[in-house]
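[[Sequence with tokens]]
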Amino acid sequence: MPNSRLASSSLSDTEQPTVHYYPVSNSCAVPAPRALRPGEAFVVPSFEIAEALIAHGADSARIAISQIDSSEVNYPGYAQVGSNKQLVPVTPFRFDRSILIVLPTYNERQNLETLVEAIARHLVADILIVDDNSPDGSGQLADHLSRQQKHVQVLHRAKKEGLGPAYLAGFQWALAREYQLIVEMDCDFSHPPWDLPRLVHRSGTADLVIGSRYVSGGSTQGWSRRRRLVSRFANAYVSLFLGSSIRDWTGGFRCYRHDLLARMNLESVKTKGYVFQVEMAWRACQLRAEINELPIRFSDRVQGQSKLGYQSIVEAITEVPRMYFQTTPS
């Protein structure tokens, strides 16, 4: 069963800088977002109005949700500016569903502890670190964090087998413990921790929520022109075979409902690299799942090296046509 003593991180005991808020209270009259200076932010009464602002180009890191008319959320209604200029809630969002965040690690020691702390500032959730025997000591650090924080668990794997098998191991661990929502995200801060509450909230109306770079309000930051072209080409290639029902097939910032993952026959998933994300989304489509894309600003990794290699590209080129011609078992 999920850990009943979930994480809770508060900023109430630290010095808070002053924030000047611009209120937006009506989603039908959302203005074109103004350019914000340091120490300025939007404040809105609901996730829905926040999403309307983001779709118009506002930065989700600069939106505070003041109050939420929903019994599933307990939030005090204000936020402060963190050291990186994003808003940090005084207490993290708490939902009435059990949530597990799966973090695969391979040589992510530089990012791991900081990310675990950042997640706890924004969302009450359990964390499963799936380590593939990282030579840089990520697994040992994960064990240390687990001993210190009851909401952190560790799953050790014998060797590096790719992104897909690591996530599948985490998903199966989550299903066995009856978590209601399972979130996947990278360990390199390319997926914003402050967008986790948005992802979870949207799962109230969708079986799969994808943090998307390619819907209105989504974007990439810190990418070279070559990397932008590669990503765009990859999604265009997938859409050529699998259709355009999803704009960001390769996005890895996602929230799955338990029931959807349980119907996916995970034992039959064979992809190992980044095309794993495509296969999982395609299976969700074939199961007629409700899929929703949420705009995010995807940033280049803060530290460490990208793990996208030639083998992953070849796998994507060959596996996508196979998915088109093969019916997914379920």
Q: What stands out?
A: The longest strand covers residues 99-105. The chain has nine helices and 14 strands. Residues 3-10 have pLDDT under 50 and may be disordered.
